[in-house]
Design goal:
With 328 residues, the protein is mainly α. The protein has helices spanning 4-30, 40-62, 67-79, 82-87, 89-108, 111-118, 121-133, 139-155, 166-169, 172-202, 207-237, 245-267, 270-292, 299-317. 79% of the residues lie in helices and 0% in strands. The model has no long low-confidence stretch (mean pLDDT 87). It binds cytidine-5'-monophosphate (C5P). Cytidine-5'-monophosphate is lined by residues 95, 99, 189, 193, 196, 211, 214, 258, 261-262.
Length: 328
């Protein structure tokens, strides 16, 4: 069992990372862009490289900064165990597919429907945790997951002022494609997360080595994606076109996200990760209200926020041992 301190530290850092990422992305959208916009497909590749380099640094640190130890671990674990390494191609390939599906979803749905529907991944994650990891959830925990899903849905429910008129312009056909893409992404998110959790928890290998393996495939898939989508533009103006300080901050936060998610999956689990991201959605919305003033909280938002907080406490409730009658 991992230490409870690492569990809560990793969850806390995930809340911080998700909140900063959302806020930086929103901030970057409000900036006046000069010259070409950066290519999203290039940001994915750069984030994978940063992730691999940071994980290598962490493995180095685990081995008192010995380059020789790093070299031998990478050889032993990655080159000499091709089957083990190939296992990581599965979650990596699924994540790549998922990132593309979400892109399809966003192009066919309005952002609110997309975000609200994507919260179903809380339930798919729980179902995969039960079926693939044999985790048992008590009745309070199932109820709390339903409350969490309802809460996040309400938090993201569009208010009158935020409904965009283009929504009407979306045809029923494209709505269907969009919703289908999000539903498949909910399944892939649950499956890939739990599959990665199974690999991490079944082996003693460092989480950072596993993340290097995952990142290597992510890099290869991402590179193909970049060449397929934006090959022409990369040839014209290079893959770093449009990069500025904010872009680098987003890329660095995304890479940090990969590291933190891996730590959360290792020391806590995928279900708790869902709670951490839900809390950070509330936090970033509130900060965005006070700081960027681009959000007008409604009573539906507050009701949703209360439900998320109630769900968080309820989920932990059954984990505690029943009170000792002799001390009552
Ligand atoms: O929506 P969901 O929680 O499934 O998204 C997880 C995201 O985290 C994916 O975009 C995936 O690429 C990323 N990830 C990562 N490194 C990990 C695990 C997930 O970058 N070890």
């Amino acid at each position: 069992m991992a230490s409870p301190r690492l569990k809560y530290v990793s969850l806390g850092v995930l809340v911080f990372q998700t909140t900063s990422l959302v806020l930086t992305m929103r901030y970057s959208r409000t900036l006046q862009a000069e010259g070409p916009r950066y290519l999203a497909s290039s940001a994915v590749v750069v984030a994978e490289v940063l992730k691999i380099l940071s994980c290598m640094l962490l493995v180095l640190k685990e081995h008192s900064y010995s380059m020789r130890a790093l070299n031998s671990i990478l050889r032993q674990e990655i080159i000499h165990k091709p089957i083990e390494t190939l296992k990581l191609a599965i979650p990596s390939g699924i994540y790549t597919l998922q990132n593309n599906l979400l892109y399809v979803a966003l192009s066919n749905l309005d952002a609110a429907t997309y975000q609200v529907t994507y919260q179903l991944k809380i339930l798919t994650t729980a179902l995969f945790s039960v079926s693939m990891l044999g985790r048992r959830l008590g009745i309070y925990q199932w109820i709390s997951l339903l409350i969490l899903m309802t809460g996040v849905t309400l938090v993201q429910w569009p208010s009158e002022s935020t409904v965009v008129p283009e929504k009407e312009a979306l045809s029923a056909g494209s709505q269907f494609v969009g919703v289908a893409a999000v539903l498949v992404a909910c399944c892939s998110s649950g499956f890939a997360g739990v599959y990665f959790e199974k690999i991490l928890k079944e082996s003693k290998q460092s989480v950072w080595v596993r993340n290097i393996q995952l990142g290597m495939f992510g890099f290869v898939f991402g590179l193909f994606g970049m060449l397929a989508y934006d090959g022409e533009r990369v040839k014209e103006s290079g893959m770093f076109q449009g990069y500025n300080t904010v872009t680098w901050t987003v890329v660095a936060l995304q890479a940090l996200g990969g590291l933190v998610i891996a730590a959360v999956i290792k020391y806590a689990d995928n279900i708790l990760k869902g709670f951490a991201t839900s809390l950070s959605i509330i936090l970033s919305t509130l900060i965005s209200y006070f700081w960027l003033q681009d959000f007008d909280p409604t009573s539906v938002f507050f009701l949703g926020a209360v439900l998320v907080i109630v769900a968080t406490f309820l989920y932990g409730y059954e984990g505690k041992p029943p009170p000792n009658p002799s001390r009552a």
